[in-house]
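Quick start: what a row looks like.
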Amino acid sequence: MPVAVVTGATGQDGSYLCEALVERGWRVHAVVRDVDRGALPLPADVEFHAGDLLDPEGLAETILTTEPDAIFNLAGITSVAESWRQPGLTASVTGSAVASILDAAFRLQETLGRRVAVLQPSSAEIFGEPTTTPQDESTPIRPTSPYGAAKAFAHDLVRIYRDRGLSASSVILFNHESPRRSTAFVTRKITRTVAQIAAGQAETLTLGALDAVRDWGWAPDYVDAMIRVATAPEASDFVVATGVSHSVRDFAEAAFRAAGIDDWSRRIRIDEALIRPADPHEMRGDASKIGAELGWRPTVGFDELVARMVEHDLALISAGEVTA
């Protein structure tokens, strides 16, 4: 039975990853801040360990004692907006902490004399404001936010340790969503508010930049990509994306349509305070490499993705779990 260590196990990607690994016969060790079993919506077979990315010694101890075949580092600050509010913390948690994970994995590999794989989720934000579209593995790294800079540092560390002999890979993830996305993200804010409007609990949806264009995919598809990359014979870096981009306006329109609301344009309000500094206009990925080498393809299209999120939020409202 292969063994995995997963940080960030209670987040959107981490929860899907733990479920997928357990279904595939892995033994999963989840590193979480709070080990209260009842508060963690993860499979019963998952084993929990208290840990924090700001505690490198404790994290290394967990890695060395569990002797995993693969380490999936999904923890960290994941919001560009939050990184502007806490740039120092973002640099430490999302960037520097990766060095400790890679070092522990390398030491374990040397001790055991066998491969220890590390999967580091990178981000399209490492490209900043790219000069070419779509972006692939060869696109220059020029981040324009503290989050992007932290991810770029971690991305380079993965390459450095891979050159040293560690089976370390980065997946350069473009935007990916699901009903498990936090409402702090614009996509879930849209679907939650649209569901409230449909239920008569709200009247308008307030957004920032409507023209920002992103490549949105289905989170469980991207988790499948992570597992493929971590278990591939050769470590490398892979862009994970759909190759199709839509604007924030498109996302909102699709959400209103899924909720059966036709007069959507008059329901939107713009708040200039929500527009982020140095926000790239368009991000769209070219996932040809992972498709050709590992057979990965996205399975859920944009409209279906948005509809699933809206349906989930409508169901929560119907069950009385969401109020205005």
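That is the whole record. Residues 3-177+219-240 form a domain with the Rossmann fold fold (CATH 3.40.50.720). The chain has two domains: 3-177+219-240, 186-214+245-279+299-318.
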